[in-house]
Amino acid sequence: MKLIGATSHYVTEDLDEGPIIEQEVMRISHRDEVEDLIQKGRDLEKVVLSRAVRWHVDHRILSYSNKTVIFD
Questions:
Q1: How far is residue 63 CA from its own chain's centroid?
Q2: Could you tell me which residues are beta bridge partners of residue 7?
Q3: What is the per-residue burial (b if ≥16 Cβ within 10 Å, else e) of 35-50?
Q4: Known catalytic residue: 16?
Q5: Residue 27: left if φ>0, alpha if ψ -120 to 50, beta else—which one?
Q6: Which terminus of the chain has fewer Cβ atoms in its 10 Å neighbourhood, N or C?
Q7: Is the dihedral of CA 49, 52, 56, 62 positive or negative?
Q8: Cα–chain-centroid distance for residue 13?
């Protein structure tokens, strides 16, 4: 099984080192063409980013010591 994934996190001075807000994975297949993989990746990034932004705007995230807790 093959997977692709996307992560949303808070920005820090170090690239990709901020506290993670949301992550998601999607199964892919050897049958997927390059264009399919690009589109699936973009779709996944949009979903993950929109969740992270929504949760941040709704003040549902507690961030402490480079970790996050998301409240329902």
A1: 16
A2: 23
A3: eeeeeeeeebbeebee
A4: yes
A5: beta
A6: C
A7: negative
A8: 19
β strands within 1-72, DSSP E: 2-9, 20-28, 61-64, 67-70
Structural tokens at position 40 = 């699936």
Give the residues across from 63 on adjacent strands. 68
Q: How many residues does the chain have?
A: 72
Q: Catalytic residue among 16, 32, 36, 58, which?
A: 16
pLDDT tens column, 37-53? 999 999 999 999 999 99
Can you tell me the distance from the alpha carbon of 52 to that of 16, in angstroms, rounded to the nearest whole number?
A: 15
The pLDDT value recorded for residue 14 is: 86
